Amino acid sequence: MKILGICCSPRKGQNTFRAMEICLEAARAQDGAITTQVIELADLDIRPCRACGECKGRLACPIEDDFASLIPVLSDSDVGGMIVGTPVYFGTMTAQCKAFVDRCVMFRRNGWLFRNRVGGVLAVGGVRNGGQELTLQCMHTFFLQQDMCAIADGPPFSHSGAAIVGKAEEDAVGLQTVRNLVARMVKTLKDRRSE
How many domains does the chain have? Predict the structure, then answer.
């Protein structure tokens, strides 16, 4: 079973990427059968969806950019969980995250390829209450519209997902939400595997 991390920061290898690394390390530590992979959008040219509808009936997009290279990874049937990590810019997800989400419409239009995947969100902001909750909720909408199972970080916080403030390694509360989110994702994946 694979958990795919999608890092939607425009800044390669920075704080959101580090938070994602912590998240995926925790997943592998909880279950040795889980593999992980990270996609960083920072160096990729992913343009906005034009709503042309040409992806309906074929897993391809007429926009010539780097999204085409992500299609095989995103459609991999071994992927059971997806964690989308995004910095919070002006109270919500980055432009890279929004473009990525919109372009993923092709997986819905071509057999609901994300159906039943477990989705979790990691929102990284500069200040507490800087838009992390809204960002988490927006991503849950994406998961639900893809017919995925959206999970939160669970007790004692249950704030819709993992929320980091400032440097990932220095936010003890945020790191606890990361660990909680991963624990819930791993448990959900294990439960599904045993069905």
Answer: 1
The conformation of residue 168, written as its DSSP 8-state character, comes to G
**From CA 192, how far away is CA 125, in angstroms rounded?**
32
pTM over 0.90: yes
List residues bridging with 125 in a β-sheet.
165
Let me know: does 160 contact 152? Beta carbons within 8 Å: yes
Give pLDDT tens digits for 137-148.
999 999 999 999
How far apart CA 51 and CA 57 sit, in angstroms, is 14
Q: Which three-class secondary structure state does DSSP give residue 80?
A: strand
| 119 has a pLDDT exceeding 90 | yes
* Residue 114 clears pLDDT 90, i.e. is over it: yes
Could you tell me where the beta strands, DSSP code E, fall in the chain? 2-7, 35-40, 79-87, 118-125, 149-150, 162-165
Between strands 79-87 and 35-40, the pairing is unpaired
Where in the sequence is the domain holding 25, given as residue range(s)? Answer: 2-193
Q: What tokens were used for 81? A: 């969980």
36 vs 24: CA distance, rounded Å: 6
Distance CA 109, CA 86 (A): 25
The CATH number of the domain where 77 resides is what?
3.40.50.360
The C-alpha angle with vertex 103 and arms to 90 and 142, in degrees rounded to 5, equals 60
